[in-house]
Amino acid sequence: MKVLCTERRCGWHGLEAEVLQAANPFDVDDQINGCPKCHSVDSIVVACDEPDCWQQSTCGTPTPSGYRNTCGKHVPKASDALAQLEGRTA
After folding, report:
1. Residue 61 — φ and ψ, nearest 5°?
2. pTM exceeding the 0.70 threshold for the entire prediction
3. Could you report the per-residue pLDDT of 32-62, keeping only the tens digit for each?
4. How far apart are CA 31 and CA 44, in angstroms?
5. Measured between alpha carbons, how far is 31 from 42 in angstroms, rounded to an integer?
6. In whole angstroms, what is the distance from residue 33 CA to residue 9 CA?
7. Number of Cβ within a 10 Å radius of residue 61
8. pLDDT greater than 90 at residue 78
């Protein structure tokens, strides 16, 4: 999954596997995530899954091929998403 750091001065984006992870010192059943570039904690968010787009994902849409995370620019039209789920071509 594509992810990005929300710290304004950082600008890092990459894959979820690159994110730093550690045990949360305040909750033993939880973990914290850190940016591999600026080391800020809990500043990682999901990025749009469109190729070459690194905007923050703001919409989730179920599709026959799986769940899509997209930004506002790439959000599927409701009629297209419904047609895909029903097996029709939009």
Report:
1. -135, 125
2. yes
3. 999 999 999 999 999 999 999 999 999 888 8
4. 13
5. 10
6. 18
7. 17
8. no
- Beta-bridge mates of residue 23: 31
Q: What is the secondary structure of 41-80 as a DSSP string?
A: BS-EEEBP-STT--SBP-EEEEETTEEEEE-GGGPPPHHH
DSSP 19: S
Which residue(s) pair with 33 in the sheet? Answer: 21
Amino acid (1-letter code) at residue 26: F
Query: Residue for token digits 């999954």?
Result: 1
Tokens 């029903």 map to which residue?
86
Q: Which residue's structure tokens are 């550690």?
A: 22
- CA neighbor of 33 nearest in space, from 67, 6, 56, 51: 6
